[in-house]
Amino acid sequence: GHGGGCGGRRTSAARRRDARLGRAVRSLWRELLKILFQRRTYVGWAGLLAVPLLIVLALDLSSSKPGAGEGPPFFAAIINNGIFVPLAAIGALSFFLFPLIASMAGAYPLAGEAELGTMKTWMSRPVGRAGVLFSKWGVAVLYVAVGMALVGLGGLAAGWLVFGIHPLTTLSGTTIGIGAGVERIVLANLLILTALLCTISLALLVSTLSNSSLTAAISAMVVFVVLNILNGFSYFDFMKPYTFTSYNLAFTNLFRDPIYWQPIRNALLTYGVTVAVLLVASWLIFRRKDILT
What we know:
This protein is mostly helical.
């Protein structure tokens, strides 16, 4: 009968774990439904989708075509191949609009509850604070990921309709097939999404300290802009390997042939460490935070 007790203990631990997981999934689902019923969600998505469409429209209507090296990366290549539209769009967006959307997405779920005074209701449910924090983070990530997918798909569709889609000429001058090109575009999107996790996590951290979502979003954005400025000065080169903003253009290495992996690996390592540190800090603060006042 000795093994039975042990097995019983194990199943009750497993049951507790399953219940915890179920609660976390339910709270994530509740968060998701909440953002789907907010007008601001669709305003953000529509604003992002407008960018590749405007790029295509501008290039189609303009009488003088851009020269090589004009505009964001891959911009000049669009007129010969619509496959470059999603790339030019994410390249242009990753310097301001993506981080802005990510700051707002990361700041609002937590600080918004504090502003509305609904955090108490949340806490009365059987969800641990870690569950609350990570479901808020998860829904912010999903929101940004959907926005990026809209930019990619909208850009590809618009580029295909107006300029046609052809095999992709890499930065090394070689040509890769359309399928391989689309694969690399998906990878580029995932790399930029990973970068945006840093901004989301930063906004989340500030929102555990401040009860204003605007303050949290602006603070995250200010940090992003200041880091970008510092990355521009050679004096601050020693910071570059450690700041997530210095890898903004790492995705362009996916379009060399063969792919130049080193800067991409460095970028992913920096993003991973940054997100881990910010999330642990957010959790340590939120765990102790007095919510009921």
